[in-house]
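Intended use. Records such as the 5-formyltetrahydrofolate cyclo-ligase entry shown here are meant for training and evaluating sequence-to-structure methods. They are not intended to support clinical decisions.
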Amino acid sequence: MEKARLRKLGLRNLKWLHDHPTLKEQKEREISQSLFNDPCWEKAQTIAITKPLDFEFNTHILLSKGWSEGKKMLMPIATKDRKLTFHLVEPETIFEKTAFGVEEPVAAPEVSAEIIDLLVVPGIVFTHEGFRIGFGGGYYDRFLQQYQGETCSLVFSEQIQESWQVESFDLPVKRLFIS
């Protein structure tokens, strides 16, 4: 199946799960607990995540936990040249919605991506090997080409789909936390 069709199927599955909030919240709790008990989270001092769209995994859980443990929490901003810069976010950080509907931090200090210990990579469709299909902009694919740290994704079982051809530029995340 081609990526565009898989992306539509993945979005439909995520929106179905969003329409079943009790199930979605249960899965988010299970996935979060698995992550929080994993050495990749425990060792990380600087963690980069995204602010979710309403049908995506609720990363606010990660922000709260990270801040309570004294971790530096970062969020990306997509630049005009299709790259990601990462910015330190605090509980008082203000966010602004982009034309794509994604919320990005405003006036948050940019930090070097080299300090990221754990990058939580978003996606719409995943294979069990960690390959992913995102929204199609290629931002994370380009970033992962030079990033050397730990990567993981927080995945609902509804997002797993094995029937697609991985391309040469596709890079897998190292760990999937699935429920």
